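R.M. (postdoc): so does anyone remember the format we settled on? I'll just put the structure tokens first.
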């Protein structure tokens, strides 16, 4: 059974989410402080984390920053703050998606399902770029490519159609199950991180920006 770990100091909300998500066949564990949640995640290794931003002592951003030093578990941020800078900061720190409070339970489940979706692109053994969706692992020219779960899904969308131009909106829908909102730069941020990590292995111009259209993967799987 898929395990979800919720880190939120709102105990009433945690109980509501635990009851609702259990009805969708998720095993749910809750922590009410950032420190307790971080320790539990590293021990229990859940399949996905729901992480509240606004918590006393160790806030969600601090938890995420420390978590990403040791784990690439998918993280969905829960935030009552709607500022773009907060959303961008979370994505830059390695969050896979965010949902603003208050949110509908149906939307939350849809976002969880999108994050947990596994892509199965075809690949050949002699490809410069190798993806293993079942493990969220990637390699480039034989070297491990250390991607977050969100970066992996973005790269997987491009990998399925090498040489073709894919719009940012299509990437967002296929990778995260939602439309790209106006002024939302999280696809650009993920692409930037992927490019840097690939360039550290091989300086090949791998992902091309097609202005006004989207992105194009220049490596043939």
């Amino acid at each position: 059974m898929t395990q979800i770990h919720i880190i939120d100091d709102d105990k009433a909300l945690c109980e509501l989410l635990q009851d609702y998500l259990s009805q969708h066949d998720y095993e749910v564990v809750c922590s009410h402080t950032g420190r307790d949640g971080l320790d539990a995640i590293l021990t229990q290794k859940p399949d996905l984390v729901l992480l509240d931003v606004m918590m006393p002592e160790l806030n969600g951003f601090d938890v995420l920053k420390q978590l990403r030093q040791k784990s690439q578990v998918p993280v969905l941020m829960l935030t009552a703050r709607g500022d773009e800078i907060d959303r961008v900061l979370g994505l830059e720190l390695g969050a896979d998606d965010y949902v603003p409070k208050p949110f509908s339970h149906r939307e939350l489940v849809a976002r969880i399902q999108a994050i947990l979706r596994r892509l199965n692109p075809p690949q050949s053994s002699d490809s410069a770029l190798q993806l293993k969706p079942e493990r969220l692992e990637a390699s480039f020219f034989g070297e491990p490519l250390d991607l977050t779960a969100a970066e992996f899904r973005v790269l997987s969308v491009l990998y399925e159609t090498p040489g073709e131009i894919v719009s940012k909106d299509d990437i967002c829908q296929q990778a995260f199950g939602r439309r790209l909102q106006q002024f939302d730069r999280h696809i650009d941020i993920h692409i930037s991180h992927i490019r840097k990590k690939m360039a550290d292995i091989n300086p090949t111009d791998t992902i091309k920006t097609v202005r006004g259209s989207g992105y194009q993967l220049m490596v043939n799987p």
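R.M.: ...and that's the designed sequence above, right after the tokens. Also worth knowing: The chain has two domains: 3-116, 129-217. Helices lie at 11-22, 34-44, 60-67, 84-93, 105-116, 149-160, 168-176, 186-201.
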